[in-house]
Amino acid sequence: MALTGTLEEVSFAELVQVINQGRKTGQLIVRRLHEEARVHFCQGEIAQASLTCLAPMEPINGAEVIYRLLGWKKAEFEFHLSQGLLRRLIQQTTDELILEGMKRLDEWEKVEEELADMNVVLRVKAGNIGDRYDELSDNARVLLRLVDASRDVATIIRESGIDPSQALLAITELMTQEAVEKWDSPAPALFNAAAGRG
Amino acid sequence: MASINYALKEVSCKIVYYGPGLCGKTTNLQYIHQNTISDKKGNLVSLATPGERTLFFDFLPLEASDIHGFRVKFQLYTVPGQVMYNSTRKLVLRGVDGVVFVCDSQWEKLRENLESFRNLQANLASYNYSLENIPYVVQYNKRDLAKVSPLNYLQYVINPRQAPNYEVCALDGTNVFESLNCICSLVLANLRSKQQEGSL
């Protein structure tokens, strides 16, 4: 018999922890409108994961699926026990996956809180980069060169030429490292007001 | 709460090292890992937060004596101390059996210590846990530094319940194992009393 429910009742992280602690082997299916994820467990460890959607998009596989599922708030799930052992395509332990995913969510929430829209202007946080410049990713360094207290996030991402999803990750990195901060410059406000009248 | 694996005849207890960013939680675990003989420990796993300010989570099972034929295993975790990682901290606290609260003794860290302690209480409350029924010990770390708060002042602010406490220097290992032994004993005693009450 399957274990079924919704993520409103039990969060995805809790669900995975229960399967992990019980060292269960089987398949967890999580469904929401147009999307279905399948996560295979071998003795409590996540072995494989895939996410398919009805839209013509390539399916996603691996750890990325788990990171996305952690952000799902409304979905139905069912878990079926099985005997067959699958080859482990995900090398991280389940604990590592869940904690890494949760860390990303926490970082993303901070960015969302501070960057309510893409028109927020960024400036370099004085005295905060120093030695940590060497630790920044290449994308973050490219973006940092465009942070000048006049460009907004959308402009920085567009002018960087970096893939937007990757660029957003790099913006997240700069924010969590506290290398940059929101800057309430008067210039864009005037610009927006003028645009609004037009 | 302790998870029991009947197939392996094993009881797993979860101990979480909690405290503000850069207070020395990870240093504690690294010291324990380095100074435990290899057949008594598992792999130390660490995930770095951006900027590598702090290690993200560590996992280290230490074997201990048997309880009624069940092997007891301890799993030690740290939480990311920086304020923004609260969902992560909450997740790590799920099923906790004992807490080591690591306090940074430096004067200017007093507020951060207090905020972290309140955050611990709030996150425990979200699972209906409380420090009334979860054993904990308090570490006053970095006692070797110059500008540290007096011990009785820290006790007054951070530890009014007078939980067992230790002056620690996690870097050189002073009282690291003493506080670990203390929390392990408290957790085992708690487990035994629950077993006698029949709630386990």
Give a brief outline of the structure.
By secondary structure, chain A is an alpha+beta fold.
Biggest beta sheet summary of chain B: 7 strands, mixed
Mean pLDDT of chain B: 86
Approximately what portion of the residues of chain A adopt beta-strand conformation? 15-25%
In DSSP terms, counting alpha (H) and pi (I) runs of 4 or more, how many helices of chain B? 5
Work out the helix count of chain A: 7
Task: Walk me through the structure.
By secondary structure, chain A is an alpha+beta fold. Chain A has two domains: 3-102, no CATH class; 115-197, Winged helix-like DNA-binding domain superfamily/Winged helix DNA-binding domain (Arc Repressor Mutant, subunit A). In chain A, a hairpin with a 2-residue loop joins strand 2 and strand 3 (35-42). Helices cover 40% and strands 21% of the residues of chain A. Chain A contains seven helices and eight strands; from the N terminus they run E-H-E-E-E-E-H-E-H-E-H-H-H-E-H. Mean pLDDT of chain A is 84; it is low at 193-198. In chain A, helix 3 crosses helix 6 (164-176) and helix 5 (153-160) crosses helix 6 (164-176). Chain A starts with a strand and ends with a helix. Chain B has 200 residues and is an alpha/beta fold. Chain B has one domain: P-loop containing nucleotide triphosphate hydrolases (Rossmann fold, 3-Layer(aba) Sandwich). Helices cover 32% and strands 22% of the residues of chain B. Chain B is built from five helices and seven strands, in the order ββαββαβαβαβα. Chain B has helices spanning 25-34, 86-93, 110-125, 151-158, 176-197, and strands at residues 3-5, 10-18, 60-67, 70-78, 98-104, 136-141, 165-167. In chain B, strands 1, 2, 3, 4, 5, 6 and 7 form a seven-stranded mixed sheet that branches. Chain B is globular, with a radius of gyration of 16 Å. Chain B starts with a strand and ends with a helix. The chains are: A alpha+beta (198), B alpha/beta (200). Chains A and B meet through helix 1 and helix 3 of A and helix 2 of B.
